[in-house]
Amino acid sequence: MESPAPATAEMGAAAFCSLDNADRSNRTMRSMMDEVGLARSACVKWNVVPWVSHTRAPTLADIDAARPMLIAVLDQLPVLEVVVAVGKPALQGLTRALWAGELPGLYRLVSTPHPSQRTALAAIAAADRLRSTLTRIAEHIATAEG
Q1: H or E stretch including 54?
Q2: DSSP of 106-133
Q3: DSSP H stretches of helix in the chain
Q4: In this model, does residue 13 exceed pLDDT 90?
Q5: Measured CA distances, 88 to 44, 84, 94, 140 (Å)
Q6: CA 7 – CA 121 distance, rounded (Å)
Q7: pLDDT value for 7
Q8: 48-102, pLDDT tens digit by residue?
Q9: 128 with 29: CB under 8 angstroms?
């Protein structure tokens, strides 16, 4: 995903990147994962910028500054198969790490809109795309396991 939601950031040192956080984006992700049968145990959630950005969305400078942390997380996932970039900043972070030759592996990369779109029409379209993406990921995992 992108960066911590304001409600998460307000928790200060107790804040943690989690699908259990009470903001709208995490509620949407949990609901859709449940709907399509994508087990939480098959996923790791990470914000490409793990700190609060002082702009509306993380800047390229934020994304580049956070890249060592992204690489450190990916290093801990040696059997990672698919990376879902949720939102434009997440996609930018992953592609910029690839271009810099810093990714510890080569992954299937899937991009989907962030679930917190600002208008109702954009939110509907984003939800449809997110649902479709998560469905394909769940199907991939089921095929790989089955």
Answers
A1: none
A2: --EEEEE--S--SSHHHHHHHHHHHHHH
A3: 6-9, 24-36, 60-75, 88-99, 120-145
A4: no
A5: 18, 11, 10, 23
A6: 24
A7: 60
A8: 888 776 666 788 999 999 999 999 999 999 888 888 898 888 999 999 998 888 8
A9: no
